[in-house]
Write a structure and sequence with these properties.
two-stranded antiparallel ribbon, about 10% strand, Ubiquitin-like (UB roll), DNA polymerase, domain 1, binds FE2/S2 (inorganic) cluster
């Protein structure tokens, strides 16, 4: 049937609402999510603004810089361009789960020893990408590191990143399995642990200096 050129345009069909998961597993803990979230919300903002896990950083917003890198079932992803609905039931690992101030991951120890960070802004993304690399390849070559570490660092730390990854790899291989603190952060098989309460409405206290524990500042 011919279309009347004078007829008003068809109203645009509204896009299908994206499914919203009821909870999100982050660093082995089950976080209930508010019911009014938009499933299109990037994972980065869910982590930072809803769960108040501010160690993951916003840099470019277009999947170019890697500052927002987290692990999804052990695989590094750019959380600035990954919608919450696309995460589904997969497990998220962030810098907050890599190690603690009293028990840093071998990568964080090596980062400190080799004074990797300058401003620190890119470091959580680099550390998460490095943890995924070591889980997949315990003794990576320089080429492996260059292929896996695709984040940018405006402070020029990438040469020290490479040295520190080699150092952490040696340390992890020398350590007994029971003492490899945080090594399993990149493992997709880590089961969800105890659920945590709904996120508080107020932001947390000021974060520690990036020099103290690489990659966890706000
Ligand atoms: S903020 Fe996501 S890649 Fe730059
Ligand atoms: S951007 Fe400053 S340490 Fe990488």
């Amino acid at each position: 049937m011919p279309t009347d050129p004078a007829a008003p345009p068809e109203p645009a069909t509204s896009p299908m609402p994206l499914a919203l998961p009821a909870s999100l597993t982050v660093n082995g803990r089950l976080h209930p999510l508010p019911g009014d979230l938009d499933g299109a919300m990037p994972l980065l903002w869910v982590l930072r603004d809803v769960l108040h896990l501010t160690g993951t950083k916003y840099g470019c917003g277009v999947a170019a810089c890697g500052a927002c890198t987290v692990l999804l079932d052990g695989q590094p992803v750019r959380s600035c361009v990954l919608s919450l609905s696309a995460v589904g039931r997969r497990a998220v690992a962030t810098i907050e789960g890599l190690g603690e101030a009293q028990a840093p991951h071998a990568l964080q120890q090596a980062w400190i020893e080799h004074q990797v960070p300058q401003c620190g802004y890119c470091q959580s993304g680099l550390l998460m990408a490095a943890s995924a690399l070591l889980a997949r390849k315990p003794r990576p070559s320089d080429a492996d590191i260059e292929a896996a570490i695709t984040g940018l660092c405006r402070c020029g730390s990438l040469a020290r990143v490479k040295v520190a990854i080699h150092r952490a790899a040696v340390r992890l291989q020398a350590a007994p399995a029971s003492s490899r603190v945080g090594q399993d952060v990149a493992s997709p098989s880590t089961p969800p642990l105890a659920p945590v309460s709904a996120p508080p409405s107020a932001p947390p206290a000021a974060p520690a200096s990036p020099r103290g524990q690489p990659g966890t500042s706000g």
